[in-house]
Amino acid sequence: MKTYKHLTIIFLAIVLIACGANIEEQKKSFSVTTNAQNGTISIDKTLELALKNPKNLEVSSINYELDGKTIEAKQPLLGFKLGEHVLKTTVNFNGEKAIVNQTISLLSDTAPKVLSLEIVNTYPHDKTSFTQGLEFYNGVLYESTGQRGESKIRKIDYKTGDVIAETAIPDAFFGEGITVLNNIVYHLTWQGKKGFTYDATTLKKKSSFNYGQSKEGWGFCNDGSKLFKSDGTSLIWTLNPETLIEEDHIQVYSNKGKYGRLNEIEWANNKLYANIWEKNGIAVINPKNGAVQAVLNCTPLTKQISNFSISENCLNGIAYNPDTKTFFLTGKRWDKLFEVKIIEK
Fold it and tell me: Residue 273 belongs to a domain with what CATH number?
């Protein structure tokens, strides 16, 4: 009898294992087809989804989600942010549940405009400054510089290039972008996963903060109520200025694909302006969905810089002066600060 019992148990175990394997095979048999070409689709289109069920299993329900939000099998995409999104399909069948995940990239529906610039004035700039951040606040130009042992935050008389006040950053940190809001200077460091705040009047250190999901610190700006942070990827993060928590982000994309290596950033005219490392252009970005709406060609400026190099002494520094309604552009170790107007061709 014991032998029969053991054989029965072994038989049941084999059956259960076989059933389990069969269920897993059934789950893996489901797939989802879309009208996204090579996984990309423009936001002016309607995303069309269809479940493939080659085993003809009895399906009781299907649920589609895009980044956690339930969508329809035919879903208009206007209103969604650009970039890579997880399309999750949940299939309920025969008392079981199968999940199919895939990535869909949403692209802009319009090509970026090409902008040019007109040089209004040229001012002297400290050619030892490895410029990382540039911003006007109450009529004063603030600048942050990089390199370990050289990083500083400065207040500058932009017309003469004279330094009004400055604070050195500890040698352990590589200084990056800054922004000024409510008399506080917010300052990023590169790979230290840490930022600092300073009194905007005295440049005395107030506090420090840690990064969240962002990989590094590159550019910083604000729209008067919240902070925007680039981290050297295609992402721009939104931070609460009180808690300095990364609350949201956009992915910067055009109608062709992502824009990476976003560096110094500036807020002006309800848009984000971003330097792109190793490029002679500035991307003009819709802050709501991440679409690159225009690209500013800055080659006329780089041609006037004798020590310019695309990777080292590159374009990096965007400041909008609301008093003059003009932009101020410079670069790392440039001897000139250019005041420009942006012109649409």
Answer: 2.120.10.30
